[in-house]
Amino acid sequence: MSVMHYPFNVQGYGKLYRDAKNVPFYDHNVKLCGTNNRTYHSWCHMQKDSCTTGFYIDVQHGGSCAFGR
């Protein structure tokens, strides 16, 4: 699993936001699988979880995770 932990005030989150336009799911309400093997209803939900937990979560693939929550 490629999940990295960052302190709360990390500048990397701004980079995630700037790179959002490069993620095909960012403005769509589609399910996607995060690198933490958790299914999210949208890219925004995934980023909120990343910010809340302090872990960097990226898109693993579109659709639900096979064994995720």
From TrEMBL:
<dbReference type="Pfam" id="PF07648">
    <property type="entry name" value="Kazal_2"/>
</dbReference>
<dbReference type="InterPro" id="IPR036058">
    <property type="entry name" value="Kazal_dom_sf"/>
</dbReference>
<dbReference type="InterPro" id="IPR002350">
    <property type="entry name" value="Kazal_dom"/>
</dbReference>
<protein>
    <submittedName>
        <fullName>Kazal-like domain-containing protein</fullName>
    </submittedName>
</protein>
<feature type="domain" description="Kazal-like">
    <location>
        <begin position="31"/>
        <end position="65"/>
    </location>
</feature>
